[in-house]
Amino acid sequence: MKINAERKAEYEFSIGYRATHWIRAITIAVLIVSGLYIAYVFQSANINDEPVLFLQAKWRFVHLVAGFIMIGAIIFKSYLFVFDKLSRRELVSILDFINPKIWIDQIKFYLFIGDHPQLKGVYNPLQFIAYIIFYAVAFLISITGLILYVHVYHNGLGGLLYEPLREIEVAMGGLANVRAIHHICMNIIIFFVCVHVYMAVFNAIKGKNGAIDAIISGYKFPAKD
């Protein structure tokens, strides 16, 4: 098999995409750790009779700050997906998603029985549907997180959102169900992150086109035709 070593730099991800990606990555890690602590207290400082440690309150503060940062990043990323010219290839991925031939070729690539298909967009069909599911879950975990937030903070933003979010809370079956859905969404995101990292490394090694480099520098290096 002849290997074509010639490569060309191709700008794939804008600075906005890369920034929101790493912001989400960091905040998700912080949210997982802080969320687990809030739900299941697994550490404490030295035992003290005086109520001055406030560890739960500190972890809750970290969780809230990271949560609002992630919500902001998701909103901004959604805006880029629809309106940013540099992110247009993400939107074009819809064409690959609805193309049955691309689906077949992509699955063959993952099964080591075919080459990677030529894509019009950035994402292959499996990536595209995975990201759709991720953003749906991210939206749901954000909504449930805000519902839990307004039951603790009743002024300012909490007071503003309380009434409209109460309607959603009732539709979900009450606060206990909201909390359960919030935790289920977290578990789905943990699973997604593990699969995402594995597939990113898999594609980078098998494709040999600098796929992981693109999320850092913005450029990948596909072989010339």
From TrEMBL:
Compartment(s) of residence: Cell membrane
All residue ranges annotated as the Cytochrome b561 bacterial/Ni-hydrogenase domain in the record: 13-218
Domain of life: Bacteria
Regions crossing the membrane: 21-41, 61-82, 128-152, 180-201
GO cellular component, one term: plasma membrane
GO biological process: respiratory electron transport chain
Pfam families: Ni_hydr_CYTB
Membrane topology: Multi-pass membrane protein
InterPro entries on file: Cyt_b561_bac/Ni-Hgenase, Di-haem_cyt_TM, Hydrogenase_cytochrome, Ni-dep_Hydgase_cyt-B
GO MF term list: electron transfer activity; heme binding; iron ion binding
Keywords, alphabetical: Cell membrane, Electron transport, Heme, Iron, Membrane, Metal-binding, Transmembrane, Transmembrane helix, Transport
Membership in a protein family: Belongs to the HupC/HyaC/HydC family.
The protein's name: Ni/Fe-hydrogenase, b-type cytochrome subunit
Source species of the chain: Campylobacter blaseri
